[in-house]
Design goal:
By secondary structure, the chain is of the alpha/beta class. It is built from four helices and twelve strands; from the N terminus they run E-H-E-H-E-H-E-E-E-E-H-E-E-E-E-E. The longest helix is centred in the first third of the chain and has 10 residues.
Amino acid sequence: MTKIGLLSDTHGHLDPKIFVHFKDVDEIWHAGDIGSLEVIDKLREFKPCRIIFGNIDETEIRTETIETEIFTVEKMKVVMTHIAGRSGRYAKGIPELLKKEEPNIFVCGHSHILLVQHDKRFNTLWLNPGACGIKGFHSVRTLLRFEIDAKKVRNMEVIELGSRV
């Protein structure tokens, strides 16, 4: 079993409560719009991480991360990219990516809208943790925490960090 802490859209702000909520996770996944190298450094010092860059991330962050990561955890194939649209209204290139890779879990960020949904078209669990930073239009800052065990996602939790302002 692997415990995952999933966040996105920090935009340079890393709430100290994240470390409390993710204290028992095995890995942290950051789905882009990091905003500063300091965020990357603090997360990597805390736990093993998988971090992709987002559209606001400049060159120094892009040299530390990649745009799309494809990996396997507990026999579950995961594709993580920042801009994806949403299930049924995909961003350019996403249907082709999902068809080619056939992930069990698809992770994205960018929209600042929390979404946990089974995408029937591609038979994948679509995860967007919303935004946990203080920049953007979202009103509540959110994270996801879950377990992957025996090729199943279990104990999915939405964590609210409080209001954006």
